Amino acid sequence: MAEKINPKIKTFDQKEWVKTNLSYKKDSGSWAWILHRISGVALIAYLFLHIWSISPLVQGKAAFEQKMATYSSTLFSFVEWFLFAFVLFHALNGVRIIIVDWADGAKYHKQLYLYTWVIGILLFLAMGLIMFSHIF
Amino acid sequence: MELSVKILRYNPEKDSKPYFQEYKVPGVAEDWRLLDVLHEIKWKLDGTLTFRRSCAHGVCGSDGIRVNGKNRLACSILLKDLNYKKTIIIEPLPAMPIIKDLVVDMTSFFQKYEVIKPYLITKTPPPPDAERFQSNEDAEKLFESAKCILCGCCTTSCPSTWTNDNYIGPAALLKTYRFVFDTRDEAPDERLDIIDNPDGIWRCHTIFNCIETCPKEINITWHISQLKTRLATREF
Fold first, then answer.
1. Residue from B17, B100, B103, B221 to probe the interface with A (highest A Cβ count within 10 Å)
2. For tag attachment on chain A, is the N or C end more exposed, with fewer CB atoms within 10 Å?
3. Do residues B119 and B146 both lie within one domain?
4. How confident is the prediction for chain B on average, in pLDDT?
5. Cα angle B137, B140, B145; round to 5
6. What's the whole-number average pLDDT of chain A?
7. Prediction pTM value
8. Is the minimum CB–CB distance between B10 and chain A shorter than 8 Å?
9. Is domain A29-133 given the CATH code 3.20.20.210 in the classification?
10. CA of A23: which chain B residue's CA is closest?
């Protein structure tokens, strides 16, 4: 689309998108976008972990249950709780993006971002209560 | 009051890459515009400093620069709205080729702007005895989008622009809205076809940097969302 500038003029090309992303002042929209990407990649990583961890199913019941035993520790429950946090953010922010694109969400996007966090944290704590009530 | 500013300098005839130069500007008041500070430096401290400005009142849109990490118009920002007790960092607009100091090459920005045909297209002849009619209500729908002064702050603040040279950018999309939703225009589909492209409207990830930076406070993302809805529900 865009052609290169007049080659006779010597210019300095500022094409450092990582540096620009890190140094540009970020507001709620930027953070939502960055966290959406991070949580998305984390969920893909989780998907592979999930497939790998249920793969002993093909070796029979004993192998599967041995594998599952490693996942039933309290520490792992804690990790799972944070996995839920990633799912929550990705899902709620996804709803926020739908409202922005399809309704008039762009007019109150900052409030929507705040609601994403408020609802997210409430559901996160509620899940913690469900998951760890047998310990405390 | 003495103000400390750090400005990114680049002279293509001498420097291989840009570097920061610090200035201590005496006699500054908090109701000064940032442009006044740049003038003070250029007129009294260092005549080699280069920057663009024309009207100096937020209408021409030529003095878009990056201040403390965020794009702004130098003439539309007062020192008291910045954290002036600390050093103010001034850079050229990001992701654009620097010609000298704060002057960037805006060629690609205007090329993208021209792509969407930023002029009224009509196919029927005008009424013989009057102008093409538009109701007040229909005109009001365009007021916000027509406020754009093409300073380039939005397009150069967009992370999609930083990673992709070819992304059309929020300024051009806002202008698309201005003509697609103009009741007198007779080629909305022509423009929609142009922006219905992976490097067109669909590279907008609703990051909202354009709204945060717009010196005219236009809700650009809302206008883009109207175009997205229009495209997604278009009938052939």
1. B221
2. C
3. yes
4. 94
5. 150
6. 88
7. 0.90
8. yes
9. no
10. B69
